[in-house]
Amino acid sequence: MTQNKQRNWVPVILIGITISYLGLILYIPAINVFYQAFKSGIGAFVSNLTHYEFLHAAWLTLVIALITVPINTVFGLCAAWGIARHNFPGRALVLSIIDLPFSISPVVAGLMIVLLYGRQGWFGSWLESNNITVIFALPGMIIATAFVTMPFVVREVIPVLEETGKDEEEAGKTLGANEWQIFWRVTLPNIRWGLLYGVILTNARSMGEFGAVSVVSGNIGGLTQSLPLYVEDAYKQYQTESAYSAALLLALLAVVTLILKGILERKTHINDVD
Questions:
Q1: pLDDT tens profile 206-225
Q2: 141 in Cβ contact with 64 (< 8 Å)
Q3: What pTM value is reported for the model?
């Protein structure tokens, strides 16, 4: 009887520890962001979102996402199809290289880009002679964001391709369909939920990336300052309400990402059951 009572307390203790930890690390800081953003009223919150520096940072963040997400979506589809459908020498090495952004610090990734495309970098002299600016400009920010978001689509699509197998694609070939028709009518419908999941994660990471972009951008307000960089700069300049207002938008992006993630996981589960 005593052992049963002790066993009943174990889940309660574990759940309590989990909730307490999440409260200290996640819930309380998130609530504080909402409180600080609206502390002076809705009018002040809206006013903070009309500053030129904020609008430019938001626009620049959107531009970076609009460029990097399609690039990594196409790359992810090509890489996932090649890896999942073909066995070739060095396959494990290719997968390891694709996973590098998960293991390398974003700051180190930014430094690598500077060492390649900076004035003293490997390609610096050629870029300078051709009047091409990469570091402390939009191209460098795009390269840094593309690097850190590279694995998401690949890693979400590969398991789906491996699970679906080649049977339906082979059947399409026997019926006379070409490769393009097979991709659009067979492969893409089978991987659509995994692909959308990867795209959502890629977009969320691209809009929230800080470390690598901070290194290559120079963090120049109104020029090369993305939204996460704007939050840090505004806070350092004691513009706390502006910083929290921008941080709230990034937090809302995270909430939207979680909602879409849950919907896609539910869709995927329903399809698996069917």
A1: 999 999 999 999 888 888 99
A2: yes
A3: 0.86
